[in-house]
Amino acid sequence: MDFVSRYYTNIKAFISGQLIIAMIVGLIVGVGMTVAGIQYAVFLGFLAGVTNLIPFFGVIITAVPAVFLGLAKYGLFGLLRVAIVLVAANQIESWVLSPKIQGDRMELNWFVILLGILLFGGLFGIVGVLFAIPIMVFIKEFWICYVQEALKKL
To answer: 35 exposed, middle or buried (CB, 10 Å; 0-12, 13-18, 19+)?
Structure first.
């Protein structure tokens, strides 16, 4: 029961961490699009925040209307503005926010989280990216509750 309880607590922390990251990414995109002069910046920020719950696809989903809006108002220069904002938001989320926030919430090293996402993504594609952190938490809790206890008995 201790294992299940600890795992459940960590999954709740993971989900709440994802919500925090999604809000920050939405804010970054909304402010970035406003600074870039792209219309409907608040909508694009909201869309980026909501779709950020789907790692990596969220940026693509947000990019579609953002590219059209940037092209419609500023042409290729608008496309460049949109690309800069979306790439910056994605990189900040991927390299800073996710590892740091999730690492702190689930007591995993940020570098281990980054490596886990890359490893599981390379092995299993998008499904691996989606489930990398919950699988790593499962492995950590399994190790603590069962392997360490078995080693203590030896």
So the answer is: exposed
CA atoms within 13 A on the CB side of 97: 21
Please write the tens of the pLDDT for every residue from 25-70: 999 999 999 999 999 999 999 999 999 987 667 788 999 999 999 9
Q: Provide Rg for the chain, Cα atoms.
A: 19
Select from 26, 38, 39 the least CA-distant residue to 92: 26
- What is the rounded CA–CA span in Å between residue 22 and residue 12? 15
102 φ, ψ (degrees, to nearest 5): -70, -35
Query: pLDDT tens, 95-138?
Result: 888 888 888 888 888 888 888 888 998 999 888 888 888 899 99
Number of domains in the chain: 1
Query: How large is the average pLDDT for residues 3-18?
Result: 89
Rounded Cα distance between 78 and 92, Å, is 21
Q: In Å, what is the CA distance from 43 to each residue of 33, 62, 73, 105?
A: 10, 10, 16, 29
Domain that holds residue 120: 2-153
